[in-house]
Amino acid sequence: MKCMYCNCTDSKVVDSRAADDDKAIRRRRECTGCGRRFTTYETIEFAPVLVVKNNGTRQSFNAEKIRNGIIKSCEKRPVPMHVIDEMVSDISKQVYNSMESEITTKEIGEMVMERLKKVDEVSYVRYASVYRSFKDLSSFMTELKQMMKADKKAAEQKTDTKQV
Ligand SMILES: [Zn+2]
């Protein structure tokens, strides 16, 4: 830690305390070269990742939100909770390991779809249609038509609840 007065690189910590809800450490240091004191802030390396929405607004990455979105898509589908949890922790890991400070909702959507597709096709289509409606009207319409066709089929075969 370089002293901003004399550029001396040696200093001792005279006081250390948590700042900003324990997300940072505030250190009071004393330069061993000139004796002046200065304060440094050290933030934890596990910095928050911001999610950039389509309209440009940003909010903190929230694994719980992704989880809720997946749960919604998997409603009444044979997808066990631990599989959903695995998907969420896998996505979280990928997000934090990327070392990027920002990620778009599009990228997160792709991560979810990529995994959901392998787990359950119906949940995947549900998720994809909701997600795509925000960015691409024509692909949403195609998806919607397919779903309506499938719904009609399901209505005709009311006894088979697995037919969607
Ligand atoms: Zn100094």
Task: Describe the largest sheet.
Answer: 3 strands, antiparallel
Could you tell me the strand content as a percent range? 15-25%
Question: How many runs of DSSP E, i.e. beta strands?
Answer: 6
Unreliable runs, pLDDT <50, ≥5 residues?
none
Order of strands across the biggest sheet?
1-2-3
Helix content: 40-55%
In brief, what are we looking at here?
This protein has 164 residues and is α+β, with helices and mostly antiparallel strands. The chain contains 5 helices and 6 strands.
Keywords:
alpha+beta; 2 domains; three-stranded mixed β-sheet; 5 helices; 6 strands; binds zinc ion
Plain-language structure description:
With 164 residues, this protein is an alpha+beta fold. The chain folds into 2 domains: 11-43; 50-156. Helices cover 46% and strands 20% of the residues. It is built from 5 helices and 6 strands. It has a 3-stranded antiparallel sheet, with no helix packed on it. Helix 1 packs antiparallel against helix 2, helix 3 runs antiparallel to helix 4 and helix 4 packs antiparallel against helix 5 (137-156). The chain is elongated. The relative contact order is 0.09. The structure holds zinc ion. Zinc ion (ZN) is lined by residues 3, 5-6, 8, 31, 33-34, 36.
Topology (elements, then pairings):
Blueprint: E1 11-19, E2 24-31, E3 37-43, E4 50-52, E5 58-60, H1 63-73, H2 81-97, E6 102-104, H3 105-119, H4 121-132, H5 137-156
Helix pairs in contact: 1-2, 1-4, 2-3, 3-4, 4-5
Residues 3, 5-6, 8, 31, 33-34, 36 line the site of zinc ion (ZN).
